[in-house]
Amino acid sequence: MRIQGNSRMSYTVITFAPVQGFIENSRKLRDLYGSSFILSYLAKVLCEDTQRYFKYEKGKSPKESDPVISPAIINVTQGTPNQIIIRGEYPEADAKRVFNDAWRTLVICCREEIESRVPNENYNWNRVWNAWANYSWEFFYFCGGETITDARQKLNEIKRSRSWVGINWIGESSTLSGSDEIAWPGMTDQFNPKKDSIREVNQRIEIFYQHLSKQFTEAIISPKEQLSIPELVKRLVTLDKVVKKLELEENEYPSVEIPEKSFKDINRKNDNSEDNYWTGWFQGDGDKIGDYLKSLNQSNDPKKEEEILHNFSSAMMKWGEYFKQEFKKEIRGSKLKQSPGRIIYAGGDDFLGVLYRQKSQINPQDCLEWFYEFPEIWKQHKQEITVSVGFVWAAPNVPQRDVLQHCREVEQSAKKSGRDRIALRILFNSGNHLEWTCPWWLLEKLLANYRDRNQRKGEQNWTHLYNDIAVLESRHAFTREQTKVAEALFKAYFPEQPWEDIVGNDNYDQAFNHPENSHTGILGESKNYTDKNGELELENVRKDINNWVINLGKVGFHLFRFSDKKSEIESKI
After folding, report:
1. Which one of 112, 359, 413, 474 is at 20 to 30 Å from 284 when CA atoms are compared?
2. Which helix (H) or strand (E) holds 72?
3. Which three-class secondary structure state does DSSP give residue 145?
4. How far is CA 292 from CA 64, 286, 287, 299, in A?
5. How far apart are CA 490 and CA 548, in angstroms?
C-alpha cells in the first residue's frame, strides 16, 4: 500500500451526478434498472481502481489496509453507492480518467451494438455520441481533512459551485424526457428548410425506431418511442451482451454481474379485461444514519471512525444482497412466490422495489403480509437503526414517472411523521391519493385484526368502517375539541387493540412516546406539536388523531376491497 509523504492522514471523497436528469427520468422499469446499474458500475470502477492504486489485494492484504472505507466492496456491482470515501490521497487526475474512460466505454459499446444490429443505415451521429461520452457527468472531488466528517463537509461545499458543460442540439425532443435530442443516424445532418422536408425527417426517425424495436424487441424499445442517446444507453445496459462486452473492451474494469437475462417490464395492462392491474411500489431508507454513526464514536477518533464506517457499509451492502434473495421467498404461505416483483436497487440503506404479477392482479393483502415481516428482514444487518418506508398502491393508468414521484413523497412522509414506520398511499388514475402512516409495531396488530359489524376477522368487510366514516364526516362529528368519536369508532372495529396504548390519557402521551422505548407513537415527536413556549397545541394533536383514524378506514378499505367482491362492487357505485 502506498504511503503518503507526511504523517498526517488525509481522506479522499468522490461523488458524481448526471448533468442532465436522464438517470431519474424513467418510463419503464427497465429505465430504473439501467439507471441503477450505471451508477453502481461507475462507482465500482472507481473503488477497484483505488485498490489497484494503493496495491491492495483482497484476501492477501490486511483487512485494515483496504483504502476504500466506504462503500465496502463485495462481489456484486448492483447497489454500490456513488459516494466513495478513501483513506489516503487518490489522485484526482487518475480518478477522473478512470471514471471518464469507464463511461465512455459503456457509451461506445451501446452505440456499436445499435450499429451492428441495424447495419443498413448511413450513420452520421458519432460527434453527438462522443459529446455525451465526454460531458454527461459532474465529478466532485476533495482530498484532505483530518476526519471523514471534515472531508465530507468540504465535498458538500464544492458541490454548491457546480461546473458543467451542456450539450446543445437542434431538432425534436425525445419522447421520454423531452429535454434532449432524438438519437437517429442523421441527427447531425444539416437541415435546409428550403430543400428538406420535416415530414420526411420524421418518417426516417420513425422507420429507424421500428427497426430498433424489431432488433431489440419491443420490451426494450417500443416503436412508438424516440429516445435520446443517454436514454438509449440506460435501456441497452440491461442486455447481457452489452455488459459482457464491457469486460472485453478493457481488462482494467471490474468484473460485473450480468443483469437478469429474464428481465421483463411490468405489464399493467390486461388485454382480456377492462380491469387493468394495480401494482405496489415501495421505497425505503434507514433513519438518522449520521447520528447513529456519531454515537458509535464518542471519542471522535479518526481511526475508530474509519472502522465504524467500513463495518457499517459492509453490513448494509451484504444486507442488500440478502434482501434481494429474501424478497423472492414465500411469505407466510402467500402467493408472492409465483411472481414477487423486483428489487430495483438495494444499495447501502436505500432500496426501491415493486410488488406485482405478470399476468394477474396481485392482492394487496399479500403485499401487506410481506410488510408485516419486513422489520425482521431489516434487522438482519444487525445495525441499531430503524427504517422508514413509503408504499404506493398505484392504479394501472398512472404514468410510471408519477408513481416514482409519489414513492419519494410518501417515503418522506414516513420520515416527517416520526420515522420507524410505513406510509401507505393509494394512488388513483386521476392523480388523487389517500395516505395513512403507521409505526411498524402497530401495523399488523391493526390491519390483521379488524372486525367488521358481523365480527368477522378473516373475510372482513372494510366497507362497514368506510361508510361509518363517510357519514360521520358529513355530520362534522370529528372536531378539534375532542377525539371521542374517533375513539368509539376505533374501539368498535379494533377491539383487540386498546385505544389507551395508542393515544394514552388526555395529554395524549402514548401518541408520541410508547411505553416500550423502542417503539414510536402514531404522531411521531411531540416537538412538532409545541408552540413557541414549548406548550403542547392540543387542538392540532386532536385533529391529527382524528385524521389518523379517518385515513386508516379509507386506506384500509381500498387495500382490502380487492379480496372482497361485495366491497369492490359497492366501491364502484
Report:
1. 359
2. none
3. coil
4. 22, 10, 9, 14
5. 11
Gap between the Cα atoms of 104 and 450, Å rounded? 56
Mean pLDDT of 386-406: 93
Instruction: Report how far residue 524's alpha carbon sits from residue 310's, in angstroms, rounded to the nearest whole number.
Output: 31
Cα separations (Å) of 316 from 41, 260, 351, 384? Answer: 18, 22, 11, 12
DSSP H/E element including 485: helix 484-493
Concatenated DSSP letters of 492-548? HH-TTS-HHHHT-STT-GGGTB-SSTT-B-TT--GGGGB-TTS-B-HHHHHHHHHHH
Q: For 379-483, where are the alpha helices, taking DSSP H only?
A: 400-416, 440-447, 463-474
If you write DSSP's letter for every residue of 150-182 in order, what string do you get? HHHHHHHHHHHS----PPP--SPBPSSSSSSBP
Name which of 81-95, 186-200, 262-276, 296-310 the model is least confident about. 262-276
CA distances from 205 to 80, 113, 365 (A): 36, 18, 45
**How many angstroms separate the CA atoms of 240 and 434, rounded?**
40
pLDDT of residue 515: 61
For residue 258, the model assigns a pLDDT of: 44
Q: Which strands, in side-by-side order, build the sheet including 433-439?
A: 342-347, 350-355, 279-286, 387-394, 421-427, 433-439
Axis-axis angle for helices 92-117, 229-236 (nearest 10): 80
Which cell numbers hold the place of 413? 412522509
CA separation for the pair 388, 289 (Å, rounded): 12
User: DSSP readout, 193-261?
Assistant: TTT--HHHHHHHHHHHHHHHHHHH-TTTS-TT----HHHHHHHHTTSHHHHHHHHHH-TTSPP-PPPPT
Rg of the chain in Å (alpha carbons): 27
Contact 374, 336 (CB under 8 A): no
Q: What span, in angstroms and rounded, lies between the C-alpha atoms of 70 and 87?
A: 10
What is the 8-class DSSP label of residue 262? T
Q: What average pLDDT does this structure show over 218-235? A: 92
Q: What's at 111, amino acid-wise?
A: R
Give phi and psi for 441, each to the nearest 5. -65, -20
pLDDT at 564 over 70: no
Residue type present at position 275 = D
* Per-position b or e across 147-174, b if 16+ CB within 10 A of its CB: bbbbbbebbeeeeeeeeeeebeeebbeb
Q: Give the pairing type, strands 137-144 and 11-18.
A: antiparallel
**Beta strand 421-427 with 387-394: parallel, antiparallel or unpaired?**
parallel
Residue 70 CA to residue 81 CA, distance in Å, equals 9
Instruction: Measure the CA–CA gap between 70 and 84, rounded to whole angstroms.
Output: 6
Q: 342-347 and 279-286: which strand pairing?
A: unpaired
Asked if 138 and 164 touch (Cβ cutoff 8 Å), the reply is: yes
Nearest to 266 by CA among 391, 398, 384, 151: 398
Q: Alpha carbon of 1 to those of 58, 59, 88: distances in Å?
A: 12, 14, 10
